[in-house]
UniProtKB/TrEMBL annotation:
Superkingdom classification of source: Eukaryota
Key word ATP-binding present: yes
Protein name: non-specific serine/threonine protein kinase
A GO MF term: ATP binding
Length: 467
């Protein structure tokens, strides 16, 4: 008997949206209430240690306490123990708010970033969420691009409390220092390189500084915050500020960045101090311009680079009515002015489909011809691949997709993993292959760089459809 997923608070798990080394995320639908969520599924095996179980309990306890506009909402959880006679797959099922806008960093052009106005708009939301998390006595400890999402209205959402730690008793205000080391090297604070206990809040402030730098430039500032990194060593000596990308920043922007990235945690800006910094107090009109304008401002550099020409070569995101106003082509739970402006919908063999990843393209040849060309191109880029597998469509035997498991390391020595998925498509005068690069693990910006390299590779580029 094959095991199945349980209903979680009335939500049925449908398609897999992504995942990482320790968990998968599925779309979850409550058909009776017409609601859509996301469900994080963490496998439970008989070999699961007491420490792993304590970590999961801490994640659920900490996350369920969070109720803030810039933090993914935790709705409910179900635990199915291994070794039971249950018909359900043994796992921890965490039902969460759906972030239909996808990864924030999937919309940011590598090595270019975004302008200071839109960066300030989203950084204010990030800082607001982090300040709230700290007010609940919790330190996130894993602030990085893949944990920053957007909802259907374009609001920033912090997710994944898997590495969080409780550092403060909210009632007594008593705090404690932390001792364990965790996080990804490009994003961790320098004090974690030592063996001494460390204060919790400055760790997340440093992570906010790295995220702000990455938003502005489209790259992280260094491999790791130690003298093993030449980029960090130049920062320590003050030798980088006349060089690109540091030289791009306005004086106020550079000031807040160096305040957030002060090497001594005692001299680092606090969240409260960051909010009163002159760069944060600059007036902004973005919030009043509406979600469509925000979406276009966010992706302005991607559009300038021509990336959107590959994402949807066949049609615009909006129809225009007789009064010249934009109107939605159809209604889905994820279809809003923001997601529609981002073109988070793809034309596939089964019709128009919600696709939050912008790392996709169309070709003029079918999957059978394209597959070996994709494999050759990936090999030339130094990407490791596994043999392609065919995934049938249970509802239609004539449909399905071919997927290739891929992996490797980016320029900052961080591992990435994911799939290249190929399926037939036919729409109006176009036919061929719809190709989606679906990331499981790694930096979204590095994944976008790999997507662009694949699109522009000699064997693929002549076949790619574009506007």
């Amino acid at each position: 008997m094959s095991l199945k997923f349980p209903l979680v608070a009335g939500f049925k798990l449908t398609e897999r949206l992504g995942g990482g080394s320790f968990a998968s995320v599925y779309r979850a639908i409550n058909f009776e209430e017409e609601r859509v969520g996301a469900c994080k599924v963490v496998d439970l095996t008989p070999q699961a240690t007491d420490e792993e179980r304590r970590t999961l309990r801490k994640e659920m306890k900490s996350h369920s306490r969070m109720h803030h506009p810039n933090v993914i909402e935790f709705y409910n959880a179900v635990i199915v123990e291994p070794g039971s006679s249950s018909a359900y797959y043994p796992a921890v099922y965490m039902l969460l708010e759906m972030a239909a806008g996808g990864d924030l960093f999937d919309k940011i052009a590598p090595e270019m970033g975004i302008g200071e106005d839109i960066a300030q708009f989203y950084f204010t939301q990030l800082l607001s969420g982090v300040r709230y998390i700290h007010s609940q006595g919790v330190c996130h400890r894993d602030l990085k691009p893949r944990n920053i999402l957007l909802d259907a209205a374009g609001t920033l959402k912090i997710c994944d409390f898997g590495l969080c730690s409780i550092f403060k008793d909210v009632k007594s205000e008593k705090t404690r220092q932390l001792t364990d080391r965790c996080g990804s090297l490009p994003y961790v604070a320098p004090e974690l390189a030592g063996d001494e206990p460390y204060d919790a809040e400055p760790i997340d402030v440093w992570g906010c500084g790295i995220i702000l730098f990455t938003i502005l430039t489209g790259s992280t500032p260094w491999d790791e915050p130690t003298k093993n990194s030449s980029d960090f060593h130049r920062y320590l000596r003050g030798k980088c500020f006349d060089e690109d990308p540091w030289s791009r920043f306005s004086p106020d922007c550079l000031s807040i960045l160096t305040g957030l990235l002060a090497v001594d945690p005692a001299g680092r800006l606090t969240c409260a101090q960051a909010f009163t910094h002159p760069w944060m107090l600059r007036p902004s009109q973005l919030a009043s311009q509406g979600p469509a304008a925000i979406a276009h401002k966010l992706t302005e550099n991607l559009r300038k680079q021509g990336d959107y020409d590959y994402i949807d070569p066949s049609e615009a995101a909006f129809d225009v009515d007789e009064d010249g106003d934009s109107t939605m082509k159809s209604a889905t739970p994820h279809q809003t002015q923001f997601t529609q402006s981002l073109l988070l919908f793809s034309q596939t063999q089964s019709g128009k489909r919600y696709t939050p990843q912008l790392t996709r393209f169309y070709t003029s040849v079918g999957p059978g011809i394209l597959l070996p060309l994709i494999e050759d191109a990936l090999a030339s880029l130094g990407v490791k691949t596994k043999p392609a597998e065919h995934i049938p469509d249970k509802s239609n035997p004539h449909r399905g997709l071919v997927q290739i498991r891929i992996g490797g390391y980016d320029q900052r020595k961080l591992m990435y993993k994911g799939y290249v998925k190929l399926e037939n498509f036919s729409y109006q005068q176009y036919s061929g292959t719809f190709c989606l690069m679906d990331r499981d693990q790694g930096n979204p910006i590095s994944w976008r760089q790999l997507w662009k390299a694949l699109v522009m590779s000699p064997g693929i580029q002549p076949l790619v459809l574009r506007k």
